[in-house]
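Quick one: structure tokens for this chain, please?
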Amino acid sequence: MIFINILTDNPFGLPEKAININFPVFPFVIISLPCFIFNQNKTVMKKIIFLLLIVFALPAFAQEISKEYDRIGSFNSRGVALVWKNKLVGMINKSGKELAKPEYEKIGSFGSDNLAFTTMFGKIGIINSDGKVVVQNEYESISQFNGQLAITKRDGLYGIINKKGKVLVRNEYQKLKVDKYGGVRAVKDGQEVLLDIKD
């Protein structure tokens, strides 16, 4: 379809601006042709042109697709952006859909596993890029994942979760360590033990 581009002075009074209006030529020609053929008067012709300009110029104006936020961050490779409202952070997608309400103090970067750490009321949790809460904000800390396992701390004691948020070891150990080969050592009541983790 052929388009014409009309460059006009800003009708809204903004300084030194111009607006590009694109509209298809074909409907303009189809509707205008009878006026030329049947020698209609200029008033009719002017009305038709005016109506065409209004109809085809309207879609050129932007539409708001999201709620109002104090700030909207850049979109990542997954099409997710952080948004801030009243100093709290949430998430939206490129369609403006709110994936997570701005209720977190912090949302970290998403890793290759599609997960990010969150902070709410000083407690740590985990969310995925769809806005689904994987781990509730109930821990004092959560380590980076070592394979599928992460060490959690609650009430000063350590436990283990997996990437699905499932608790594999309850928070009842004074110390916990996952080695690079997946072995888990724990200390409870001053005694060190090896743990067999079953997912």
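Confidence is low (pLDDT under 50) at residues 1-12, 14-23.
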